[in-house]
Amino acid sequence: MATIRERLEAAGLKKVLAYLDNNPQENVPKAINWLRKIDKDGLYKNAFNMVEGFMSDPSNNWNRLITDVYDNIDGSVRRKLFENFIVNSAIIGSQRKNRLVEKYDCNLPWAILMDPTSACNLHCTGCWAAEYGNRLNLTYDQLDDVICQGKDLGTYMYIFSGGEPLVRKDDIIRLCEKHSDCEFLAFTNATLIDEAFADEMLRVKNFIPAISIEGYEEETDFRRGKGTYQKVIQAMKILKEKKLPFGASLCYTRKNAETIGSDEYIDFLIDQGCKFAWIFTYIPVGVDAVTDLIATADQRKYMYDQVRKFRGTKPIFMMDFWNDGEYVNGCIAGGRNYLHINANGDIEPCAFIHYADSNIKDKTILDACRSPLFMEYRRNQPFNHDMLRPCPLFDNPGRLAQMVKKSGAHSTDLTHPENVDDLTQKCVAPAKAWAPVAKNIWDNCEGKEHAEMKEKKEAEEKVAIREKVGVDTESKVS
């Protein structure tokens, strides 16, 4: 429940943001000045300084991206995105979350990823969800309850996965409509996006698809089935014409890394209208998951280099969830930044970690964040001093097995439960291959300096938060 102060702050900021309908070079800096007043804990001071810097330089790549957002996204949708993401989630929600983190001494998520259904209209190679069929579903009331709980904890970002979440498109639109103060995103194969659904997106204004695409036609249809690529291109065309924001979800494998990481392919995505790209590496989750799709260490290094180059040259926001550990101090799972709820209601630390000791049918989100498994995550993060090896499964395989066994968590795969040692074994070879490459990057580039600065900043923020809530600042900052 929002406090009176939070309501007043939100109302003031929404009024300010409503004026930002044009001229971003002039008005974005004005908005930043207002946001500084609301950001009482100074959580985003460095981010605000960075934005002010690149908005003063018309040739800066981030300036180009913001200008593109203004020119090519519907004004009412853009306003709603600013309100929900900047005001509700990044500032007010984060302040509330940080107070509760100190109170309960546990991780609390900035975003919640959940699967409305295990059903999917495709059967992609290497996808664990395909094994579940259409037997598992969360009801509308269960999804709604998770969001209500999350908002009380300061969480205003919700992401749908699956299965194919748009199998439940009517319920998703209902949730967007009811929780208009939240921002919703979905990882989707896009084959169910049509004119009618795009019009519903335009009406509710707070739903953004991240479209799974594996490269060009050959690579996409290889994993997702013949004809999928053309349906994806048609969906992108519809969204672009209606000025709706969307992005790409890119999984790089041994087969397609050079395509996905190429200049030509990123330019292609930008031309289609993508404003962002979430990048994942293939993880062999599931008893029958193939291991020959795992990218090589050289390919992972290639993606690391390319993404950093693109951030200075391409007007698209990119995040590589395995190679960007230096920016978020390692692993973001276990409720530290997000958690995952599968279509059976199991509350998992990560979409790729199919083990749990909690379920929404008998525990609250707060209960799960204080459960043995999630507390193991909190005590062990980061899992490696080298932030380019963030993952307890793929980069540090033994760490996941230790936590699962110590917490008593069980496999959540209802079809073929996977022993954590068997899963770990599949990741040992790629982890060993990546370790020296990561160390070389970490020891010889600015990543280490960046992470050390971030770690120091986070420690200072924790002290500031403790002072605000009356906690003894002389105690050790965990």
Strands, helices and their partners?
Elements: H1 4-17, H2 24-38, H3 45-55, H4 61-72, H5 75-104, E1 111-114, H6 140-153, E2 157-160, H7 169-178, E3 183-188, H8 195-204, E4 207-212, H9 217-224, H10 228-241, E5 247-252, H11 257-260, H12 263-272, E6 276-281, H13 297-313, E7 317-320, H14 325-328, E8 338-341, E9 347-348, E10 355-356, H15 365-369, H16 372-380, H17 397-407, E11 410-411, H18 420-444, H19 446-469
Parallel strand pairs: 1-2, 1-8, 2-3, 3-4, 4-5, 5-6, 6-7
Antiparallel strand pairs: 8-9, 10-11
Protein model, in words:
The protein is 52% helix and 10% strand. With 478 residues, it is of the alpha/beta class. Strands 7-6-5-4-3-2-1-8-9 form a 9-stranded mixed β-sheet. It has a two-stranded antiparallel ribbon with strand order 10-11. Helix 7 runs parallel beside helix 8 (195-204). The protein is globular and about 55 Å long. Residues 470-478 have low confidence and may be disordered.
Shape by Cα distribution: globular
Strand content: 5-15%
Strand order of the largest sheet: 7-6-5-4-3-2-1-8-9
- Helix fraction? 40-55%
Q: What's the average pLDDT?
A: 88
Q: Quickly give the structural class.
A: alpha/beta
- Calculate the terminal CA-CA distance, rounded to whole Å: 28 Å
Question: Can you summarize the main beta sheet?
Answer: 9 strands, mixed
Radius of gyration computed on alpha carbons: 21 Å
Order of helices and strands: HHHHHEHEHEHEHHEHHEHEHEEEHHHEHH
Count of β-strands: 11
Low-confidence stretches: 470-478
What is the count of helical runs?
19
